[in-house]
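Module 6 notes. Inverse folding takes a fixed backbone as the condition and produces residue identities as the prediction. Think of it as a translation problem where the source language is geometry and the target language is the twenty amino acids. Below is one complete input and output pair. Work through it position by position during the lab.
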């Protein structure tokens, strides 16, 4: 898939077929995520790959907007390891870039996913921290349920000329 086509056609997928995702595809997704840029090339990201059905189902109790996880064969939590930061505070940008790379790779591989935010909502951060036994220096940014799409989402341009300013606001 050509890059601009991927950017224009990737959408959040919330319904999945009952079909597994291979370890090879998971590797491809994580390889793409780790190709993201990061401040000072710190690469502070950590990933928790969740494939256990009972754990996936229980995630729906941690977050009000992840009920689709009960259909997904896989989910990945993108976290930041603050011990790896070179420039404090940039972990959000670094891990967001990794998440977006992951979403584009998922789409390019024919899969679907949706980015559900964890940080900065403290009760969500605390719930994921407890469930996945995260040490204090690791912060969960977001969770992506992933699977083979069982829905077709129409893609329309989001370009808005009035949002663009040249040289000054």
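Target side of the pair, the amino acids:
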């Amino acid at each position: 898939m050509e890059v601009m086509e991927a950017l224009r056609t990737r959408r959040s997928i919330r319904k999945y077929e009952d079909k597994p995702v291979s370890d090879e595809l998971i590797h491809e997704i994580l390889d793409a995520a780790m190709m993201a840029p990061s401040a000072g090339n710190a690469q502070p990201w950590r990933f928790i790959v969740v494939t256990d059905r009972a754990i996936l189902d229980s995630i729906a109790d941690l977050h009000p907007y992840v009920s689709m996880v009960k259909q997904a064969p896989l989910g990945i939590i993108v976290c930041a390891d603050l011990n790896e930061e070179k420039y404090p505070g940039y972990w959000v940008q670094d891990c967001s870039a990794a998440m977006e790379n992951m979403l584009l790779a998922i789409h390019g591989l024919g899969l679907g996913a949706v980015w559900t935010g964890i940080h900065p909502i403290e009760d969500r951060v605390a719930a994921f921290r407890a469930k996945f036994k995260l040490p204090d220096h690791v912060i969960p940014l977001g969770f992506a349920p992933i699977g083979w799409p069982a829905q077709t989402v129409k893609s329309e341009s989001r370009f808005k000329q009035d949002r663009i300013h040249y040289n000054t606001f």
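Reference fact for the lab report: The beta strands are 45-50, 74-81, 112-113, 116-117, 138-147.
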